[in-house]
Amino acid sequence: MTSSLRNIQQQIGSRAMVLAIAAGLALILAGHGSWGRGLILGTLFSIINFVLMAQALPKTIDATRKRSTLLAFGSIGLRYIVLAIPIVAAFKFPRFEVLGVCIGLFMVQIVMLAQTLRERLTKKSTPSNGS
Question: Are 86 and 42 in contact (CB under 8 A)?
Fold first, then answer.
């Protein structure tokens, strides 16, 4: 993996975790501890899933068709197992709210979407030089 992709991965992962910790802490302080803990747990596993996907993608692309298919399905299976861990934990332990965990599992995607929207909105609000 190139250093620029690794930097993007670290940037997105750290933003997701900071957002989850801030929101989780606010929820805990507001008396909704299970929601806050669930959000943080889900986000942690979302980041792990994101890292695993980034590690597997170059290996899948560079392989032969048969090996690529096997690697892709193996990667998906492993990542599904990783995503199931916090959901099972939330159902088993009442200290984690299931919906909080599910929201946390989408935190990386939420951060990427918010970053893209922010970039597009700042481009539109910047006056063009040609006018």
Answer: yes
